[in-house]
Amino acid sequence: MVRTAVRTAPETLPTASLDPAGATPMMAQYIEIKAANPDCLLFYRMGDFYELFFGDAEIASRALGIVLTKRGRHGGAEIPMCGVPVDRADDYLSRLIALGNRVAVCEQTEDPAEAKRRGPKSVVRREVVRLVTPGTITEDRLLDPASANLLLAIGRRKTGEGATAYGLAAIDISTGRFSLSEVSGGDLAGAIARHDPREIVLSEAIHADPALARIWQESRAAIVPLAQAELEPAAAERRVREQYGVSTLDGFGNFTRAEIQAAGTGLLYIARTQLAARAPLSVPTREEAGSTLAIDAATRANLELTRTLSGERTGSLLDTIDRTVTANGARLLAERLAGPLTDLGRIAERHETVAYLAEDHALRRAIRETLARAPDLARALSRVGLGRSGPRDLAAIRDGLMAAAGLGAVLIQAGTVTAELAAIAEALGAADPDLADTLQRALADELPLSRRDGGFVRAGYSEEVDEARLLGQDSRKVVAALQARYAEETGCRTLRIKHNNLLGYFIEVPQSVGEACLKGLQREFVHRQTMVDAMRFTSVELGDLERKISGASERALALESAIFEELAGRIVEQSSKTAQVAEALAAIDVAASNAELAVELDWRRPEVDDSLAFAIIGGRHPVVEAALRRAGEPFIANDCDLSGETRGRIRLITGPNMGGKSTFLRQNALIAVLAQMGAFVPAASARIGRVDRLFSRVGAADDLARGQSTFMVEMVETAAILNQATRRSLVILDEIGRGTATFDGLSIAWACLEHLHEANACRALFATHFHELTALGDRLARLDNATLKVAEHRDGVVFLHEVVPGIAERSYGLQVARLAGLPASVVTRAGAILKSLEKAERGRPARAKIDDLPLFAALAPPPPPEPPAEDPLATLLDAIDPDALTPREALDALYQLKRERAEKR
Ligand SMILES: Nc1ncnc2c1ncn2[C@@H]1O[C@H](COP(=O)(O)OP(=O)(O)OP(=O)(O)O)[C@@H](O)[C@H]1O
């Protein structure tokens, strides 16, 4: 299966078992380094290339489409090799990482000349300086600006008889974000799907747990199991303490053992991949259990929240609602959409801000215009902390801080704002204004990518740099100035300062002037050479100038580098404040984006409360509506009321194919998600009693990638809903039971409805083509029937997409089939078959079939065991009187018994 092949790290590389004996010295070094990094592709630096050998070369050449060549022999066989140029390594790296590979970057750590000095056969010293893995990258070129790049570490603890809790550490080293949470075993898959990590690190024991195998198989992340021995609980705690330089974790709040285990595992892995550098992570925040709306992986996929079923962002809900103007904001919006809240206070606070910004157009515009100038502060900050930054990262911090200061001023000017905006304004003001100011003074307008290129310090910031540059870049001018001065002092207009390899810089004058100089005209001149018609001199000043000129460019670079270090140091000192500024920028971008969306599309503020209401008036599906709008067609808004005082309601929707059942179901789930993430909703009004869990299932969705029977998948997922949905949950079931024979499917759908109504007592929408189920409307008190209106014409039907109370009479399957282009002969034949089938059924209407069934059979106590049926063997035995039998009769009786027994089998 493609998914598995893409996800897992490369299969064990044959290189791992290579014998260094008999290898050339360089190959022996390669084999040794490779042996220490067996599960990574090794980028081995040789001059201007990173070379890959043996199995690594084969994997990389296949993955990157680069030529596989050979280099020498080892153990009698040719060594496969391929290489990537160092200056384009990032492109290749990103492609390998995207395929789930991990790469060890091995650099030359000494000058080749030095190696030569050790002896003719010595090999240049090389070391792995970094492991590049999907979850630990920080370079902009390797990262998607609009998505978080999470490493998820998992720990666990026993919480009781047979129960286990899992600690999750979600770490984004590209921004320093670090959060901890704990979930039950049943919620683990959903929590992983919510975080959508690029890489998961965990103990071998958790990885090998058969109960969790499916999670790892289905995850898009690269999975890295670590040996149990490395993950001792005490070591995990120590690692967390060391990361933050504290002697106890008490000040951080009450983390559970599983959370600390997860944090320790994550930190261990990060330390291993970053080698020398320590990742600048923020202090972990703890997320309370139940603080987000639980949405399992299947529901997320089905509702296409952050990506479509085919894995694209385009066409997802996120794509449709994103009006953010910064990468930082886009990431936060995705995070909020993936984890809507359950806390009513926090939800209302976000709605309040959206309402405020939706109303104040001028303020919203000012905020968005200022934000559009703010670069990705969080990622630049992280690179500075890791010592992996360039001048443009410093500029990003400068511009980010300046935008923040500008925004703070805009908010202060706005006066009384909402509580959330006031908190944002305060965080924006937290940064030291001196830092932005210093960066502004220090950095030039045009900046090189790398600090090694120099030229990034603004002229006028440092006298030393200016002087060094002047000498380096403008040495001719300096020499010319000195030449002009000497010419004036000597009165010799033909005096020249020249340069050759033998003398270096020298002063040349005609013979006569030279003689005068020797006699004391110019005391400081020191004679070097007499030519036929000229004399050459040097001077102390010229000697100094020469030394300065030759060291100038190196000195300029060194001075710039020192300034860079100093600026980076100041940024690191302030990093926690700057991180807060970055978070505030993201939060205001998201709020303004939601407000912009609400204004643009006339979305309304929902009311989320503690009731069991679900009353939507004029609801729309945001993605379908957007698609129809592009096609110039209207979307028909629909109401939906599932409100219950103490228990929810169920709406059973029958209707024609193509009528809009699936759209209606999903739009209501999406409205709940949007409301609880703190956004406005596509409806005229919405009152929603806080939803704790959201479930959405589509009957027998094709799931070939998983390699499971489609019906089996449908049943496993339905079982999860019936077992987990609470009174507060919202359940969306679309054609459950359609994946099997009609009567099996009908009975399963029927029993599921009863269970949802009686046991789960949740709010639910249930779409079906089993029209027989509508009879349940009379029997289940809180079940209503609804259908989608259709206008019938002589030559076909028109779907009006309007949800109305009632029952669909027909499915209009044949009409849809004709619309789809099924050959006319097939449609006509199907029509004839349908007629005769309906005739046969008419004698026994659907309603009668349901009426025959006992109500709530699924929930009734099991019937008492039936009395055993009569056993013919026992009857035969009872009839035998051994004392009355002859030996012959006894033998016959035995044969008869055996015969009877054989028949029974
Ligand atoms: N409320 C609406 N307003 C306008 N067009 C709609 C509406 N709802 C659905 N549609 C259109 O009808 C198409 C079919 O909708 P949908 O897939 O929801 O139907 P369905 O009843 O679930 O069909 P089936 O039973 O065949 O799965 C949509 O792609 C959309 O273009």
Describe the structure.
It is elongated, with a radius of gyration of 38 Å. Strand 1 and strand 2 form a beta hairpin. A seven-stranded mixed beta sheet has the order 13-23-24-25-21-26-27, sandwiched between helices. A six-stranded mixed beta sheet has the order 3-4-2-1-5-6, sandwiched between helices. Residues 1-13, 701-706 and 854-865 have low confidence and may be disordered. The chain is an alpha/beta fold. The protein binds adenosine-5'-triphosphate (ATP). Adenosine-5'-triphosphate is lined by residues 624, 628, 635-636, 638, 655, 657-663, 801.
Short description:
It contains 34 helices and 27 strands. With 905 residues, it is of the alpha/beta class. The strands form 5 sheets. Strands 13-23-24-25-21-26-27 form a 7-stranded mixed sheet, with helices on both faces. A 6-stranded mixed sheet has the order 3-4-2-1-5-6, with helices on both faces. A 6-stranded mixed sheet has the order 11-10-7-8-9-12.
Show the helix and strand layout.
Layout (H helix, E strand, L loop, with lengths): L1 H6 L17 H12 L4 E6 L2 E5 H11 L4 E6 L2 E9 L3 H10 L4 E6 L3 H7 L7 E7 L18 E10 L2 E10 L4 E8 L3 H8 L3 E5 H5 L4 H6 L3 E5 L6 H12 L12 H18 L10 E3 L6 E2 L1 H7 L13 H5 L5 H12 L5 H16 L1 H11 L5 H9 L5 H24 L4 H10 L4 H10 L20 H11 L1 H16 L5 E5 L3 E7 H11 L4 E5 L3 E5 L1 H34 L1 H27 L5 E3 L4 E6 L2 H9 L7 E4 L8 E5 L6 H17 L7 E5 L3 E6 L11 H15 L5 E5 L7 H19 L2 E6 L7 H4 L3 E11 L2 E10 L7 H7 L4 H19 L3 H6 L20 H8 L7 H18 L1
Parallel strand pairs: 1-5, 7-10, 9-12, 10-11, 13-23, 18-22, 21-25, 21-26, 23-24, 24-25
Antiparallel strand pairs: 1-2, 2-4, 3-4, 5-6, 7-8, 8-9, 14-15, 15-17, 16-17, 19-20, 19-22, 26-27
Helix pairs in contact: 9-10, 13-24, 14-24, 15-17, 15-24, 16-17, 16-24, 17-18, 17-19, 17-24, 18-24, 19-23, 20-21, 20-23, 27-28, 30-31
Bound molecules: adenosine-5'-triphosphate (ATP).
